[in-house]
Sequence to fold (480 residues):
Amino acid sequence: MITEKDQSGGLQHGLKQRHMTMIAIGGVIGAGLFVGSGVVAKAAGPAVILSFLLTGALVVLIMRMLGELASSMPVIGSFYEYARVAFEDRPKVSQFLGFMSGWMYWYFWVVVVALEAIAGAKLINFWLPDLAPWVISLGLLVMMTLLNMFSVKSFGEFEFWFASIKVVAIIVFLGLGVLFLTGMLPNSVPGLGHFLSAGGFLPNGWAPVLSGAVAATAFYSGAEIVTIAAAETADPAKAVAKATNSVIYRVLFFYVASLFVIVCIVPWNSDAITTPFVSALETMNIPYASHIMNAIILTAVLSALNSSLYASSRMIFALTRRGDAPTSLVKLSRNGVPVRAILFSTLFAYAAIGVSYVSADVVFPFIVNSYGTLILFVYLLIAVSQLRIRARLERESPERIKVRMWLFPYLTYFAIGAMLLILGAMSVSPDAEQRLSFWFGLGSVGVLMVLYVLTQKMRKIDPSAFAVRPAPVDQSQLGI
Fold:
C-alpha cells in the first residue's frame, strides 16, 4: 500500500484542494489563449472554435487518463513513474521510456521558463519602454525562483490568486461580450456581428482548421501539472479526482466561448484579430483596453513562469529517485522544498535569456521550435502507459481505480491515433513553422537518447552519483 511518505518522498504537504483546482484550471489559461489564439483565428476564420474543440477534446481525454492513474497511484513525477511501471515486465524498455518521458517533460518546462521570462519583459516594456528587456527577464526569473524556494504553500497561494485573476478576467470578458452581442451596451447592435460576414463559417476550408488544431495543442499544455502536485497534498487521490474534473468541465468553455465572442466582434480577416482580446474590448468601447489586457496577459505569463519552475523542479526531483539524474539534486530544504532541483532548472533559463539577446537568429529559434513537439510525445507515452496499467489494475487491484477512463480502451486508442495523426500532420504541414517544430522536436529526442546512453555509462563509472533511491510506488499492489 502506498504510504504518505512514499508519495511525497519528503516533500512538503502544503497544497490544499483550492490550490489544486486553480492550478488545474490556470495551467491551461495562458498567453496562448490571450495572444496565440488570434493567429489561429486569422487563418481559420470563425471555424477557429472547431480547432480548439478538437484539440481541447484530446486534452480532456489525456486529463481523464491522468486522473485515473494519479488517483490510483499518486506519486512524485506522475507520468514519469507511470511510463516505468507500465513496462516493468520489460526492464530495459521501462528504464528507457521513464528516462525519456521525464527528461522530455523537464526540457519542455525549462524552455517555457525562459520564454515566459522573455515574454514578461516585453509586456512590462509596454509601460517602461526605457528599461532593458534582459534586466526585466532576469528580475522576473529571480523573483519567481525565490517564490518557489520559499515553500510549496507560497507556490500554491501565488498560483491560486493569479489563476483566479485569469478566470475572473475571462468571465468578465464573456459577460461584456454577451451584453454587446445582445445590444445592451452603448452603440452595440444585436446579432452575431462579423461571425458569418466574411466568407461564412469555413472561409478557407478545413486545412487551416486542422493545422490550427495542431498549433493549439501547446496552448492547452499545463493542466497535467496538477497530477505532479498531487504528491504534495494531504489526500492525493481526492485532490486529483476533483482537480481533473474541474479541467474537463471548464476549460473548453473558457476557450471556445471566448473565441466565439471574439470572432463575432472582431473581423477574422482584419489585422486587429492578431490581438484578439484587446481588439474586442476596444470595439466594445471599454476604456484603457490595451492597459487592462496587458496587465491580464502579464498575470498569465507570471503564472506560467511560476508553474513551469514548479513542474520542472519536481520532475528533476523524481528523476533523482530512479537514478536518472544526479543524486546531488535531491537535497530538500527545511521547508521540504527541492532547492537544488529548482536552481538547476533555472540554469537553462538564464542561458536561454542570454542567447535570446546575443544570438537571437541562430540558437534561440532552435530552442523555441524544438520544445513544442515534446509535449505531444509525453502525452503519447501517458496514453500508452494508461492502456497497460489500467489492464493490469483490472486484473490485480480493481478497487484502486477511483477515477475511470471513459469507454476504456476505445477512447484511449482513439487518443493515441489522434496524436499520431497530429505528429504526422506536423511533419508534412504546409506551415513551415509547424514542420520545423516537428523535426526540431525529433532532434531534441535524439539528443536525449544520446544523454541516456551517456548516463548509463556514467552509472558504471560512478554508481554512487546516480544511485537509485527508494521507489515511490509499491509495485506489488499492481501485481508486478
